[in-house]
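FAQ
Q: What does a multi-component entry look like?
A: The components come first, one per line:
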Amino acid sequence: MRLATWNVNSIKVRLPQLLDWLRATSPDVVCLQELKTEEPKFPRTELEAAGYACAVNGQKTYNGVAILSHTPPVDVVADIPGFADEQKRVIAATVDGVRVVCAYCPNGQAVGSEKYQYKLRWFAALRDYLAAELQMHPRLAVAGDFNVAPEDRDVHDPKAWEGQVLVSAPERDAWRALLALGLKDSFRLFEQPEKIYSWWDYRMLGFRRNAGLRIDHVLLSARLAQACTASTIDKAPRKLERPSDHAPVLAEFGAGA
DNA sequence: ATGGCTACGATCCGTAGA
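Then the predicted structure of the entire assembly, as tokens:
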């Protein structure tokens, strides 16, 4: 199974690129974030024609997540159960016996802001949710835009970013609380080149300068981590005209999963 | 020089992203 996550920053604008990328890459499961559209306007027909069933949790203008899969997703659950939240940031489904949680974690805007407090509350709720999911599903993958660069090596200029939102100590603590559940960062299961990122600012020639952050991740339960054979970031879509500011992240599992 | 871009929904600017 090949699983991917991609923050597309508007499904409407990025649909042609997504369809091209699905044809070129043929992932079995794709987690999408920042659809920025309501479910009725989600391009279900086009994606079904491309061979993907869709589970969608949409919202006008902001947020919005979906799971696409060759095998239709079952036991679909939207949002974090028991956590009151207007924002559509989570959808979960089971595909081929793998429980997939697609997450668009809050940005946090600025350390200490109202949105930052919300981000930390949200991560606490996610941790509790994933702890319960792990009890039920030994084969669990959590894929999405986490809006946290876990370590300094995930940051192009750690000195400039020190203490800022996306890298601050409380955010990294929230990330490590997910790892403490037994989840593994798929990308770090393997030797990787240096300076690999998943997001580059549209401004300041961010991509050309490789001034990026690694904030999009695939977390795996122990069982899936054992069976994981590769995890990569595909920079190709970021090079296109009118790209998303995020690149897709992939994780692949062997038959032993 | 702390901006610079992109998307959205309402205009011809404000909000948000990260």
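Q: Is there any commentary attached?
A: Sometimes. For this entry: The two ends of chain A are 9 Å apart (CA to CA).
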